[in-house]
Design a protein that fits this description.
heterodimer; A: 425 residues; Rossmann fold; 6-stranded parallel sheet; globular; B: 544 residues; Spore Coat Polysaccharide Biosynthesis Protein SpsA, Chain A; 5-stranded mixed sheet; 24 strands; elongated; Glycosyltransferase (chain A); Glyco_trans_4-like_N (chain A); transferase (chain A); glycosyltransferase activity (chain A)
Chain lengths: 425, 544
């Protein structure tokens, strides 16, 4: 199939590793929001959304079936997470190729290859030789075997700034340096058919440039949001206090929930300002038993003080309600992050953010005052930041005023289409 | 009875560590090893000739053979020496009817003891001593600390009659100390090598021992094995459609690991020249991987759109045998012999190499630069290097591990030899030269051996610095036995290599490159001198 002569009337396919109907990760939501914006864009003739899907109690059938008009589910899984090889690749490729023949996309915008298999890029290239292939990188999985976190394995989970055969072998001694060369070479060779890459943060973009993606083939475009009306700020506490902090997200070691709870304990001990914390967290039950035990012990010590409220996971729809009593959102992650949705959501609801001063978090909270940027992994630093910010109403107002305007999914789609045009030239 | 042979054995220059215990054994008995040798020199024809030796050492070295039916009365002095002891641990009859005898005997290396098997005898002075620390406990008191070197290995050459058993006996009286039935090891060279290499000879004697003892026996087993393997059928499976008349055949043996195949196919899938002009032949050389590879082959071929052939010769044939098998199945005028752990970094490499061979008829074989995964040079040509410890020529890789900046070579240039990990050659010449020599155990030295065959024919081995591939060296050999065994295999093969090419190697290592390191067409080159790579731009200094 050939590309249309004009830039208008393009057919675009968006492929993601999950459908937000079933999987609420930031990347899935970003991909879906972008799909909605492409669909409504005047230059786009048609947009379709294909999401990898795993049905409970069922193996992958490799079939692509409709979810609703324009949206498809692909029953798919991988068999090799070391090199992202899909299960039953021949059959999957065949069904995927048939779907591509039906869709006839001019642009295929892929948001992940995990859960689907990295061979999908060759299939797109073979089936649609003239199609522009774009990949948005949402984490560091191609660079880092440790769940794409760029954090060292083992005790202490130190931050890692760059991969090398030597470094990766030290994290995974059972795999040789040659194994890591093969992994990288395998991924990069598969990436060679991709026309352009998108990174949601400059930090992530630079990691991939360091890793080997040519500088001129990767750009930074922020994930767009579907805007909701901001939840009104709560009435300030006694003396104008802005002392209510909220933690939103997964309760796993990388998100720093333990640092958060330890910091709260320190503020209580120091008693300089009455810091209150609300935890809206999910998936604690999926963590290692020692971690669960540690978090529950910290929680149970703090609950009787009245300074901690422990809420469960939240749906996208009740986010506004969960924000109601919060003055600040805290993101104490101990890994780099990329473009955290939590920061975008906080800003959309006009809540300033306190975040670890590293990676994507530092980049996305750069407009905040210095007090809002804290040393990661340091409960004391976080405690002091919260105490300072809770005691100073002016700082809260200043930080609210500094919140950047949100990027809509329509803005993001326009930026993407401009980049695709640039890549095609 | 072969008195002459026996005497010659005694006369032989005794290694120092055998001399030492001998000197100790003879101390105070009025005889020195020098005298013993002198005595031996006289050919030891009669009992009388050896009387002084017998009187000193307690028994006649060699004279004992004459004394089998007519025992020499043992002089009184002998009573003060401990009675010789010994044991035969392993007696192996090889396919060429020679017999390898392994055991221990004390005093170590003594001329007083001999090994006898169906018509042939050998004196222990003819054996190679081996380290047996376990002997010091029970016998250290009697025989001194050198009892630890009481082990021995020796070879009884081809017999006229197959020996039923072999005996260790006293040279003087013929009294049998221990006798063992010979065990037959036929076409199992690796098994034979494992058994023989378990006998621990000091490193400086290893090459001599291998040359006289292990190598002839193992060579016979290999020959026998080859004779049987030649009768096996060769199976072929085709996946995808190969070019009808391929110009080049890629031959890639697979041993132990086959997961590299996918990485190679991925690279081939992006190489228009390979897809249109080359046939790819994977020679499975490992029964353990065949079913797994066959099960995956169709998927891999279809997934990457690369056609290939799987060739299976029923048995592990080693590097040379596998490549030779593949060559026999090839249709291209040119062959690229390639290891499975060599991964191309960019398309066009095969075309460049074959074009270069076409343009340079004076070269018989050309190999590219190979790089380790972490960016160091793995191959920039090979140079022969004398190993003073092992007393043998080995193949060295100059610049090994250094970044590519260390190699100033541009274009094609002559090397003493080049690697078989990736080489291009003309099929006709390869066939005329008899393909790879299959006399090297498991794999080693076949590539330099082949290069030396080309040289003998007036064709040069060349190194092309402009083509670069990644070599995950030795990944596939990790599972091929313990390092001690591998090292001994290397020494064994080095001994064979040297026996075939010693003079040429010495000349080349001394700086005698044929062409002065230059290919035709004004290509710049690098010369080799004294095993070191010297870079030049104009090639003038290449003639040493």
């Amino acid at each position: 199939m050939t590309r249309p002569e004009t830039s208008a009337g393009k057919r675009i396919a968006i492929i993601a590793h999950g459908h937000p109907d079933f999987s609420l990760g930031g990347a899935e939501i970003a991909a879906y929001n972008l799909y909605l914006a492409y669909r409504d864009h005047p230059e786009i003739e048609s947009a379709v959304f294909l999401a990898a899907h795993r049905r409970p109690g069922e193996g992958p059938t490799n079939m692509i079936t409709p979810r609703r008009p324009g949206e498809y589910l692909w029953s798919r899984e991988m068999i090799d997470w070391h090199m992202f090889k899909g299960f039953n690749r021949l059959q999957a490729n065949q069904r995927f190729a048939a779907w591509l023949e039906m869709v006839r996309p001019d642009i295929v915008h892929v948001h992940h290859y995990a859960h689907m298999g990295i061979e999908m890029f060759d299939t797109i290239r073979k089936t649609c030789p003239d199609t522009q292939i774009i990949l948005t990188l949402h984490e560091y999985q191609a660079i880092c075997k440790n769940h794409g976190q760029m954090v060292k394995t083992g005790e202490g989970t130190r931050l890692c700034l760059r991969e090398s055969l030597e470094d990766c072998h030290r994290c995974f001694p059972s795999l040789s340096r040659e194994d890591f060369w093969l992994r990288k070479n395998f991924i990069q060779t598969h990436f060679s058919v991709i026309d352009g890459f998108v990174a949601p943060s400059d930090f992530l973009r630079q990691r991939y440039v360091d890793w080997g993606i040519p500088d001129d083939r990767i750009t930074t475009i922020e994930n767009g949001q579907i805007l909701n009306a901001p939840t009104p700020h709560r009435e300030a506490g006694p003396g104008g206090a802005r002392n209510r902090f909220g933690f939103f997200g997964q309760l796993n070691p990388f998100k720093g929930i333990d640092v958060m709870l330890e910091a709260l304990a320190i503020t209580i001990e120091q008693d300089a300002a009455p810091v209150q914390l609300e935890v809206h967290g999910a998936n604690l039950e999926m963590q290692a038993p020692e971690f669960i035990e540690k978090i529950l012990a910290l929680r149970d010590k703090l609950l009787p003080t009245g300074r901690l409220q422990w809420h469960g996971p939240y749906e996208q729809e009740n986010l506004a309600a969960r924000m109601r009593n919060i003055d600040w959102v805290v993101m104490p992650s101990i890994w780099w992050e990329n473009s955290p949705m939590v920061i975008q959501e906080a800003y959309m609801h006009r809540r300033p953010v306190i975040a670890s001063n590293i990676g994507g978090m530092a980049e996305k909270t750069a407009t905040g005052t210095p007090e809002t940027h804290v040393e990661p992994r340091s409960p004391l630093a976080l405690a002091e930041a919260m105490t300072t910010l809770a005691a100073d109403t002016a700082l809260w107002e200043e930080n609210v005023a500094r919140i950047p305007p949100p990027l809509t999914n329509t803005d993001s789609a326009a930026a993407h289409l401009a980049w695709f045009g640039e890549m095609a030239r | 009875m072969n008195i002459k042979r026996l005497a010659k054995a005694v006369f032989k220059l005794l290694p120092e560590f055998i001399q030492t215990p001998l000197r100790r054994a003879f101390a105070g008995h009025g005889i020195t090893p020098a005298r013993a040798k002198r005595a031996a020199k006289k050919d030891l024809v009669t009992v009388a000739d050896t009387a002084d030796l017998a009187a000193g050492a307690g028994a006649g070295a060699g004279a004992g053979r004459a004394a089998v039916s007519q025992p020499v009365p043992e002089p009184e002095a002998a009573a003060r020496l401990p009675a010789p002891r010994g044991h035969l641990d392993m007696v192996i009859r090889c396919p060429d009817d020679s017999v390898i005898v392994v055991g221990w005997a004390l005093p170590s290396g003594s001329p007083l003891l001999m090994v006898e098997g169906a018509g042939t005898t050998a004196c222990l002075t003819d054996s190679f001593s081996s380290y047996r620390p376990d002997l010091t406990g029970p016998f250290g008191g009697e025989f001194g600390p050198m009892a630890a070197y009481g082990g021995f290995i020796l070879r009884l050459p081809r017999q006229t009659t197959a020996p039923a058993s072999v005996a260790l006996s006293l040279a003087s009286s013929g009294r049998i100390i221990h006798s063992v039935k010979a065990e037959q090891i036929g076409a199992q060279p690796i098994e034979l090598a494992r058994r023989l290499f378990s006998v621990d000879t000091p490193p400086h004697l290893l090459t001599e021992r291998f040359s006289t003892t292990d190598l002839p026996a193992i060579a016979a087993a290999m020959k026998e094995n080859e004779r049987i393997v030649e009768t096996y059928p060769v199976e072929r499976w085709q996946f995808g459609e190969a070019p009808v008349a391929p110009a080049t055949s890629l031959i890639i043996p697979l041993y132990a690991r086959w997961d590299f195949v996918e990485h190679q196919l991925l690279a081939f899938s992006r190489d228009a020249d390979i897809l249109s002009r080359c046939e790819i032949i994977y020679v499975v050389d490992d029964p353990n991987i065949l079913p797994h590879f066959l099960a995956q082959a169709r998927e891999l071929s279809e997934l990457y759109g690369v056609a290939f052939t799987i060739v299976w010769g029923q048995v592990n044939r080693g590097y040379a045998g596998a490549n030779n098998l593949g060559a026999g199945q090839a249709r291209g005028d040119k062959l690229i012999l390639m290891n499975s752990d060599v991964i191309p970094d960019a398309p066009g490499w095969a075309a460049t190499l074959t074009d270069l061979l076409d343009a340079n008829p004076g070269f018989g074989v050309i190999a590219p630069r190979l790089m380790f995964p972490d960016g160091g040079i793995q191959h920039a040509g090979m140079a022969f290097q004398w190993d003073a410890r092992l007393q043998v020529w080995l193949n060295d890789h100059p610049l090994l591990g250094l970044p590519r900046e260390a190699d100033p070579t541009v274009g094609l240039s002559e090397r003493q030899a080049v690697t078989g990990a990736c080489m291009v050659l003309r099929r006709r010449e390869f066939e005329e030269l008899g393909r790879f020599d299959t006399g090297y155990l498991i794999g080693d030295f076949e590539d330099s051996d082949l290069c030396l065959k080309y040289r003998e024919r007036g064709l040069l081995p060349g190194y092309c610095a402009d083509v670069e591939l990644t070599h995950l060296e030795r990944q596939s050999l990790r599972s091929a036995g313990d390092p001690g065994f591998r090292q001994k295999v290397t020494i064994l093969n080095a001994v064979r290599h040297q026996e075939r090419w010693g003079a040429t190697i010495a000349r080349l290592a001394g700086g005698g490159l044929t062409s002065g390191g230059l290919a035709g067409g004004g290509l710049a080159g690098a010369g080799l001198k004294g095993g070191r790579l010297l870079g030049q731009d104009d090639g003038k200094e290449n003639r040493p």
